[in-house]
Write a structure and sequence with these properties.
This protein has a 10-stranded mixed beta sheet with strand order 1-14-13-16-17-20-11-10-9-8, with no helix packed on it. The chain has a 6-stranded antiparallel beta sheet with strand order 2-15-18-19-12-7, with no helix packed on it. The protein has a 4-stranded antiparallel beta sheet with strand order 3-4-5-6, with no helix packed on it. The protein has 14 helices and 20 strands. With about 525 residues, it is of the alpha+beta class. Helix 8 packs antiparallel against helix 9.
Length: about 525
Amino acid sequence: MDKKLLFAVFMSLATVWGFQYYFGNHAAVEEQPGMVTVGAPAATAVPGQPIKVPKTQDLYKPLLQDVDFIEQKAPSSATLTEIETDYCKLVFSNHGAVLVSLDFKEHIGKYGTPLRTVYSKGSYDGERAKGCFLLAFEHKTPYFYTLTDKRVSDNKIEITFQADHDHWIIDKIYTLYKDSYKIDVTIACKPKSHEAKPLHPRLFFPAPYVAEITDDTITEFVWNEQKQSIDKFDLAKTKDLAWYWNTPQAMIGADDKYFVHALVNDSNKFVQRAYTKEFDTKNLFSILEGPSTNTTQNWTLSFYFGPKLFDHFAPVDTRLEDLLSFGWLSALCKLLLKWLSFLYDYLGNFGWAIIVLTILLKLPFTPLSMYARKKLEEYQRFQPTINKIRLKYKHDVTMQHEELMKFHREHNISPTTQMVGCLPLLIQMPILFSLYRVLGNYLDLYQAPFVGWLTDLSSKDPYYVLPVLMGISMIWQQLSTPTTDEKQRVVMIFVTIVMTVVFAGFPAGLVLYWLVNNLLTIGEDYFRKLVFK
């Protein structure tokens, strides 16, 4: 077989492997923005930096991850309190005074119900510790509270749960903001007598988990005050690590593909240490450890429990915008995201928004694309003669080079012309990579329909219609491009088939973009040949 043909096949397969590497799961793990490898523990405690917690008691005492409840059996069935804001429906239980469900009214899942990130847990011991905003103590923890107050004002709703615990009155107050995804949790501890023993409180809250998203992954993150940015951590490497805080700017939490659960403010410096506990792959909890106290204390902690969307981050904490970093193409990704959202506001359909965005991205480069393809076709007409020169002087490289240069000068062409023909594709590659990041991780595209069978532009085409049409459009381009090397044409068609198979697993929105881009390229080619004969 021809060595050049073998080399071309090898390079084509390498290109396809590159697509799979970048767009596949490997890239999702290796290139997560802000991912930090935890190394040696810090010599001294620094806000926002991990510290290694030893196994024995000393300056940094062992992590408190377990909860010992006082009551073993529920005196009665749980009393549920339902609260609705502009964006959410929240349900609280007096068992643990915890949040048992959180539904996002604006974001509907594949079954026609709102997406949920917090789920009800059982009342038996094995499940009690999995309550969202569970307040635990070092020794005995009360589980049964009484709803004592509920207040509604213009922009917020406040509910109060109370428990009587070992000569202490414990109040847990939730403040829910109607126009944002902010939740304030106030912990108020008041001793009833001098017999009250010191309390050492902890607050548990879970990572977001959406049951219907099977490929969802959870990442833990903290705010690094030295770098003034968010650090993400591999869960497997944080088992024995804690983060020292004691600062109002404390931030720790977890995010998945679409949602965030995070502490964003600690105005009273409740959090002395923060760490995690993984019950199972669906239940990862952040634990906020407060100071020991024997006097009346009030601590208020602010949380963001909501979607990963710029518009909703801003009213609560702009630092969360770091979670929408898309790696080295972050600036381009964010720009495309803003354009896509702008077009959707006018068109009301993300499919049409992607089509219009493709046209807008294609238009500025149309003159360059037409010029490049024109020059490439001109060069292709001289290719047979160039090949003859190479064959004639194949044993004399110096003479071959001189004759080729002479031929190029006489016909006013350049050896780099073939590279010019690749420019349009090189320009499209960063856009393609950026759109992959955006379309696969943008909540508003989840379950976003286009036409007919396309009911979710964030997932693959279920019937592979778009990938097949994309493959046909690529072959059409190859067949309409003049070439004197039939082996090269065969290789390119082979690459097209392989890329079609690869694209079949990509988000339908991305395949739609590439299909429309190919059709525009074909259209501009016919226009150029018709107008500039």
